[in-house]
Amino acid sequence: MLNPILTPPSYSLIKKDRVSLLLKETYRDLLLQQGIEDFETFLKRYGQISPHLKGRTLHFLVPLRDGRNMVIRRYSHGGWFRFFTRDLYLSGSRSFQELCLTEEVQSSGIPTLQTVGAIRASVFPFFYKAYLLSLEIPNAEDSTRYLLKTISHPVRECLIEKRKMIHSAAILVKQFHQAGFFHRDLQLKNILIAEGKPLLIDFDRSYRKKVLTLRERTDNLLRLDRSVEKWKRLGLPLTRTDRWRFFLAYSQSDPSMREALKEALRTYSIHSFFHRCVWSLQRGSRIRGVKESSSATSKILAVQIEGETPLKNSLRGKRRDCWCEKKKWSAPWIIAKDLG
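Now predict its structure.
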């Protein structure tokens, strides 16, 4: 059942048959001229699967008549549930809710995507598919791809760029939390890097409060840290010092936040035991990574990595040569000790 939709300013709600479209007024006429009301036909005619946006969620790239590209993200379930329902949802309107929240994030001065619209397409009497429309950000890449590319840079440039990005990402997440936003899926792939600056994306099921509690903020940060640990196990060049820099930049001038982080990190290893077990089971399975055309990294950044990941093995030598920081990643409780 579709609940009453809160239409953001500068958006229009259009309904045709089983499709509901929430379109930004500056792009409404352009999209209607291209036939977006008949969404399935529109997608077949213009949509191409994006070669850059990889992962569980399918992204389509649609050229607009004004010369820009539009990205269409199709919603799909995560976890074990995806094997049964895939991209079908039972109630609500997740794409409309995310669009409204993304507009709030943008109006708060936090770098994010520029949304164009959202679509809810009914499939069966009780099920629907959801899509989010946004403008493509040229040359943007998720932070995992960005970090992997730094291995081909000279040592000094590699370190400086990585440190700047980590500090900027910490300040961005802090700004996000201070504005009252909680990110349901705060992970490395949802932090994009465009022209050397980070921005946050994918606010599905996220929410906003007047003030986030310390517990909510630390839980969100630990969710990000689990993502770092997961990618670190696959060979991502991140060290204990890098993680320490992030937490230190985030908790700067905030003693209560620093104490809350120290306490959370002390017990983190116990709480993350389940996640480590899952990652161990996935170790021998097929892992989707990223692909680069650069000759220096083309063999390392493969689209599909099987078995004992060549990514991790190939990076060992590179990491030793590139990073002069010899402190390797250690347990979270050691990072907590450093924060003190």
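Confidence is low (pLDDT under 50) at residues 284-330.
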